[in-house]
Each structure stands twice: as C-alpha cells, then as structure tokens.
Amino acid sequence: MKMYTVAIVGATGAVGTQMLACLEEQQFPVGDLKLLASPRSAGKVIETPWGAVTIEAAAPEAFDGVDIVLGAADDDVALALYPEAVKRGAVVVDNSHAFRLDPDVPLVVPEINAADALDHKGIIANPNCATIIGLVPTWPLHQLAGVTRMIVSTYQAASGAGVPGMRELEEQIGCMGRGEEMPTPRAFAAQLASNLIPQIGGEKFEGFTSEEMKLQNEGRKIMHLPNLRVNCTCVRVPVLRSHSESITLEFERDITLEQAREALAAAPGVKLVDDLDAQSPHDRWPMPLDTSDQDLIWVGRVRRDISNPDELRGITFWCCGDQIRKGAATNAVQIAKLLVE
Predict the structure, then answer these.
(1) Contact indicator for 230, 152 with CB cutoff of 8 Å
(2) pTM for the complete prediction?
C-alpha cells in the first residue's frame, strides 16, 4: 500500500485534534505526519500513533513534500496558505468557509457526492457542520421523491465555537453550581448556560445570518440542486457537543412514511432511532448525549408534515450528530480517503 505524507493545519484545536484521531481510526495510510499550528504552539511535541511529532509553525515552506493537507484553521489562514500548499504539490481538504462556494472547488459529503471530490484543482472544501448533519439524512429522501424545500431549525452545541466555546460553557455551569458571579462571555455574545442564543454568525441576507444561509447555499452545491429553497434558523444551545436539527422537507413526488423510514434505516451514515414506545429514552429518539463522540447521524421523530396541503409531499424529522466528528474532522478524513482509494 502506498503511504502518504499528511499535514494537519490547526492541529492543536478541537477539530485538528479530532482529525488526528480519525486518521488512526480510519486506518489512513500515513507514512509521515506533520502537525502545523500558530507560532505560539511551534516546538511542542505531540505523541501520535506514528511517533512523537514536533509542531511546526504553519507557513508555505512547511508544505514541501506533503501529499495531503487537512485544514482546520480559520478563513484567513486558509486563503493565505492553501494555494501555496497546492503549488507545492499537495491536495488540501479544507474545513474553513474560505473556498466552499468557489465554483472551482468541490464541496463534498462522501455519502452524497463522493465523485465530486475527484474533480478538483488542488483544494476540496469540507461543508459547514450543520449542513453535513442535515443533508446526510435528507439525501436518501431526496433520492426517493426529489426535495424542493427545507424548513430547518438547528440547535447547535458549544463545540461549534471550538475549545473556547466548550470551556466557556463548562465554566458558566460551574459558576452556577457554586453560586458564583458569572464571568463576562467571551466565546459567545451572551451567557450560554441556562440560555439560548438565537443568532450564529453575522447578518447575511434579509435578516438571515451567515450560518443560516450556509445550509441553502452549500446544500444547493452539494446536492446539485440550484433551485433548492431553504428557510433556516440557527440557535446556540447549552449543550457541550453534538448538534441537533428539526427538519421539514417538501418533495416534488409522493413519498409515504413507510418509504421514508425504510430509506433512512438503509442510508449510509444514518442510524434510525424512532420508537416513541421504547422502554428506554435512548431508543425513542436521538439526543446529543447519545450522538457525541461517534460518526453516525441519528434520525428520529419521523412523521408526516401535517401542514402540507398535499399529504404525500411532506416529511418532518429530528436528527443529531457530533459536530466535531462527522460535522468536521471525520468528513474531512473520509474525503481524503476517497483520494487515496
């Protein structure tokens, strides 16, 4: 088997750390590993399955000899460095937003459009976490009946803001439990513990935020549906890890509830958990606690959209998935595996 030199950019963050674990879990053929981060992290030594690796500062020359780059850095770093990596012969799988809507850059969820990953010019984009979690179960239903419209509410965990977001929520919960004064929020616009924050991202279009518009714009590109209509509301919730979504789909063809459940149960990357009569709550519906630290999108509460005047053209469901894993790191490593297979 051919072995590859792999670099992780943003290796010390939540997603970068998870990428490292996913490389081992998915038995990726790593011959040599480079861990890149900010200059303040350079020089630290990380123990990995491939031996001790010294973190290097992310810079163009760090990509010399690299075959595949897994990017877990911000947009500005991605724009500055990844074209340089491509010039040096690497293929980049980027988790930032920088290239997602670039018409020359494929945007890939392997369960949906794996073939797009092979038509690249050096950079492949990893979609937004909420987009991945929502589209993996939407895709098998689209294949049955042709989705034309999505109405979505997302309930996004603190992990969406990385390690700082998770630490801030834990700190706030601790302060509440001890009866201490709440510190000034830093990772979020307001206190998240015992609260909901109904804005993620800045205003983008007619009162919709940048996070809310991603589901429509990225969904159109991934599913090759340029006319897909999406109405999305994104809410930050006091959950440490794993995003949840309530999704209502409208279709161009009839689909029965039985067909929808059968398709979801058989779909790659999906686990159907949908039994309101089950003895254990863990078998009744998906919950963030159950879906954290694993790679499947759990789907439940599958039911008819009773607001749709055409009773066979609407399906509603609830889904949960780990934002750091399938919503980011796992999906990126799956894309990289498409390249080497």
Answers:
(1) yes
(2) 0.96
